[in-house]
Every structure is written in C-alpha cells, then in structure tokens.
Design brief:
By secondary structure, the chain is mainly α. The chain has one domain: Non-ribosomal Peptide Synthetase Peptidyl Carrier Protein, Chain A (Orthogonal Bundle). It has three helices and no strands. The longest helix is centred in the middle third of the chain and has 15 residues. The two termini are about 25 Å apart. InterPro entries: ACP-like_sf, PP-bd_ACP.
Length: about 80
Amino acid sequence: MTEITQRLIDYIQENLVLEGDDIKVDETTPLLQSGLLDSLRTARLLNFLRRDIGVPIPAAKLDPENFKDVLTIVAMVRELESV
C-alpha cells in the first residue's frame, strides 16, 4: 500500500466516517455508494487533497467516477501529479 493510499484511508476513516457508523474504510470501500461522500464531505476531501497531499483537483475531474473508492482517487492524484 502506498503512502498516499494509507493517508487517504486514515483521513477518510478519522474525518468522514460519522461517529457511530460501523464502517471500516479500505482501498475498495465504495465511498459514494456507502454514503461516505456527500457534497460537504467531498469538499473536505478536496481540501485535504489540496492542502495535505499537495494536489489540487480541477473542476473537470469532479466526476463521481473519480471518487468511487480510495484506489480511484489515488489513480486520479497520480495522473494529476504527472501533468
């Protein structure tokens, strides 16, 4: 598991999973289907990616397909880092 993958999993588990929800986040947890990402939590995640990972996500990438799970987000981040 890469450092970015682990940091994302930790961030989502600690900051986006609501207290009392029995969700254990891993690389393939369906973030949209499970309800973990709504508009507010997505904004918080985007801020984390920009501030802590150092990769701003452009509006063109704000497609639900890019936020299905942690692996999908990491792939998008890698793609943006290489541009």
